[in-house]
Write a structure and sequence with these properties.
The protein is an alpha+beta fold and about 325 residues long. It has 2 domains: about 1-135, no CATH class; about 180-335, Alpha-Beta Plaits. It is about 65% helix and about 10% strand. It is built from 12 helices and 5 strands. The protein has helices spanning about 1-10, 10-15, 15-25, 30-55, 60-105, 120-170, 180-200, 210-220, 220-240, 260-280, 305-320, 330-335, and strands at about 200-210, 245-250, 250-260, 290-295, 325-330. Strands 2-3-1-4-5 form a 5-stranded mixed β-sheet, sandwiched between helices. Helix 11 links the parallel strand 4 (about 290-295) and strand 5 (about 325-330). The radius of gyration is 51 Å and the shape is rod-shaped.
């Protein structure tokens, strides 16, 4: 009979190692083939039974037989459709829902363990493994991304510090820590413009160290550098926040005092002289450094430019040196 021949075919497959391995691990294709074979087998059985009944039953029973056979075929079709829905349609719908929920993060991958029935169990297992691998790959990518971002952040931080250090080196004197002449040339015009707009005073002090050459030649350049460094510290400790100290060049220095009148600036020079005398107190009288200071104010200039302000203070500095007095100041502002 035909259905007996179909049932005997798996024994041929069992002799083939590859087919045997395939049959030991059911797959989606194998499940589909099995269901198709069962459907063919059911239809064949119904046909054989119908053939036998036509031979043994009288002709009067033929209408009833046809109705019974039709009902059997319809019932078999409904049965196979129900099994198809239970084995494939419902699990496929549930798997699609789970994949979406897992993808958007609303369900764990372990939810695939609930797919215990149906013909998609093997496929669900493979999808579960694939999702685990994708999760691990995503975690590895996120970790690598975080490491790269951290390295970039660290490198940017180092670069920013280097840039800041270079900028500081470009505008500051390395020995004294004060701003350099380049910064004075850039900053003084801005400060003057601001003070003019705000109707505020501004005073500039230009000074150099007396007997510095003698001290440098006698005690050496190292000692001379230490004296200059100490003077830089004295300047920084004397000026207010918002004031600016500069090393103009060699042993020449400048202080810009925004918002400061000449009388208040003179108190700054007194403190500078006092601290400088204390600094050289341990040296021999001929080597004790002093300060000659020239003072100019924004108010006394007919043409308020940074060049004129520096020039006026520099002239008074040399007046103070020539007169052997510590400070030269505009007579109109001395009171």
């Amino acid at each position: 009979m035909p259905h007996m021949q179909v049932a005997a075919e798996p024994s041929v497959e069992s002799n083939n190692p590859a087919l045997s391995e395939l049959s030991s691990k059911p797959s989606v294709m194998w499940w589909a083939l099995t269901r198709a074979m069962l459907l063919v087998l059911g239809v064949t059985v119904v046909g054989v039974v119908a053939k036998i009944l036509t031979l043994v039953l009288p002709d009067e029973s033929m209408p009833i037989l046809r109705i019974a056979l039709s009902a059997s075929v319809v019932g078999l079709a409904f049965l196979m459709a129900g099994r198809q829905r239970k084995q494939w349609a419902l699990p496929a719908k549930e798997m699609a829902r789970l994949v979406h929920e897992i993808r958007v993060g609303r369900a764990p991958i372990e939810e695939f363990n609930t797919l215990v029935n149906g013909g998609l169990q093997d496929l669900a297992g493979e999808v579960k493994l694939l999702l685990h691998e994708l999760r691990h790959q995503r975690q590895a990518v996120d970790k690598l991304k975080d490491e790269v971002e951290q390295r970039i952040a660290n490198r940017n931080s180092v670069l920013e510090r280097q840039i800041k250090a270079l900028r500081s080196q470009a505008v500051k004197d390395a020995l004294t820590g004060l701003y350099n002449r380049r910064m004075l040339d850039q900053l003084l015009p801005q400060l003057m413009t601001h003070c003019i707009a705000e109707h505020k005073p501004l005073t500039l002090l230009m000074f150099d160290m007396d007997r510095f050459k003698t001290l440098n030649d006698t005690l050496g350049h190292v000692a001379g550098d230490e004296i200059l460094k100490s003077l830089g510290q004295i300047i920084q400790s004397t000026i207010r926040e918002g004031d600016f100290g500069f090393r103009y060049g060699g042993d020449e220095f400048a202080i810009v005092l925004p918002g400061c009148e000449a009388a208040a600036a003179k108190r700054v020079t007194d403190r500078l002289h006092s601290l400088m005398q204390a600094l050289g107190g341990t040296l021999k009288p001929g080597l004790r450094p002093g300060l000659s200071i020239g003072l100019s104010t924004l108010a006394e200039l007919s043409e308020p430019t940074s060049i004129n302000l520096i020039k006026r203070a520099d002239e008074r500095l040399y007046e103070a040196k020539g007169a052997k007095k510590p400070l030269a100041i505009a007579e109109s502002n001395a009171a």
